[in-house]
């Protein structure tokens, strides 16, 4: 009888290991603005896309002309960069989405005000 319990424990342990080592659903990667990249006409780019927490946005742009700043909603609305905001400036920035609202602007003078900003909701 103890041999039966030992086999059941071994099977249970094996199943637990399989669950722990199985790959979770892979995050999707989205190039912002598609082939055009991060630019003044990126605002409508997200329409029709369904984003999830963990998905990656790739911002491609010329770093001498633009940047990407992750901001809260108030800063998105006002186009003001808050103190301590994360500023990305490589020209090929990869940013992981968090659950809920994600806001991004370009804080070069006049760019956000001219529409260079996006709001993404991730489920």
UniProtKB/TrEMBL annotation:
Annotated PROSITE patterns: COPPER_BLUE, PHYTOCYANIN
Signal peptide: 1-27
GO molecular function, a single term: metal ion binding
Keywords: Copper, Disulfide bond, Metal-binding, Signal
Transmembrane regions: none
Keyword Metal-binding: yes
Gene Ontology cellular-component terms listed: plasma membrane
Phytocyanin domain segment(s): 28-123
CDD domains: Plantacyanin
Pfam families xref list: Cu_bind_like
UniProt feature coiled coil, ranges: none
Name used for this protein in its record: Basic blue protein
Source organism per UniProt: Punica granatum (Pomegranate)
């Amino acid at each position: 009888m103890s041999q039966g319990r030992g086999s059941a424990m071994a099977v249970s342990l094996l199943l637990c290991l399989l669950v722990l080592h199985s790959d979770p659903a892979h995050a999707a990667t989205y190039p912002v603005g598609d082939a055009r990249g991060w630019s003044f006409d990126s605002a409508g780019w997200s329409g029709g896309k369904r984003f999830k927490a963990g998905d990656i946005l790739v911002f491609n742009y010329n770093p001498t002309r633009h940047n990407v700043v992750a901001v809260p909603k108030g800063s998105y609305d006002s186009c003001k960069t808050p103190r301590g905001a994360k500023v990305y400036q490589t020209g090929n920035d990869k940013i992981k989405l968090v659950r809920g609202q994600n806001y991004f602007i370009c804080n070069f003078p006049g760019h956000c005000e001219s529409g260079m900003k996006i709001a993404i909701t991730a489920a």
